[in-house]
Amino acid sequence: MANKQLIELSSKIATNKANREEKHEFLQVIDTLRQKGATNPVVLWEINEIITRTADEILRPRVDFLDYIADVERVEHGQKIEFNVPTKTKFAMNWASRGATVDYARVGNKPKITAEPEVLTGGAYYEIDQLLSGNVDAFVGVVDALVTEMEEKITGRIISLLANVMASAPSANKWSGAGITTNNFSSVASTVQRYDRNTSVICDIDFAKKLNALVGADFLSDRMKEELNANGLFGVIDGSKIVTFTNTFTDDTNTALVAPRKYGFVVPSSNNGKIVKVGFEGGLEQYTHTDIDSERVFLKVTQKASTNIVSPIHNIGFLEDTTLA
Question: Model-level pTM?
């Protein structure tokens, strides 16, 4: 049922790019499943497979912004995730995310490192009857919820790992204060640019707005202006691309965020100098629990992914604006 053609169609539905005929075709597929019965376990599996594979299809371009700051590797299930050690890096350490902890080891003279993926999990509830009745909004909602959560799990690992690594960085690589200025940014960025002239700063949207306010639009080329707000690119400051990541609230009061918004990290971003390494083994996999009484389905998805930083630390910059605490 969930073949490539159908997933291409469902992806258009989920991203609101489908025309009238394509919406009709999608609803016909859903109606075929409805006729088999909502309590049919095969139907439940097929619906979840459509949702999961659609989310996987949309997640891939959603994390394309990682290419600005990281080497990204995708392998099939069971294959090793390997990365080249940056050619400009000497005496590097391999820092690896392990959930709430961080492992590290010296790289030595190895030309490559092998990354060990961890299992990231996400999930969303939906009502099976809503989907089988042709409720497109319900389908879009559950797909978007899965994509957003998995994207945040991946970027959250990167931010957490960078924060852990920078605790041991030289003082010249760090700035902390109330209200960042151009000079504050430049002092840190220039340190990193001594190692790689091509740099990016990854940060929350609020931090990015503060940086962008320091730079007039006159300093941007027409091509850069066209790229703004596309695929996470928010602007350019002092030669560094400003790259933002999805960072939503974790509570109903709109006060707690997935990652702290007060941090920014300046990292090398040339093709042979990227120190952030992100690996994906396979795609999203589905696991399901059904509440018979409420007729709600909890669709759990997993993704095997690795997050590493291969660096001697002195080529990473750390920024902290305490006004965003």
Answer: 0.87
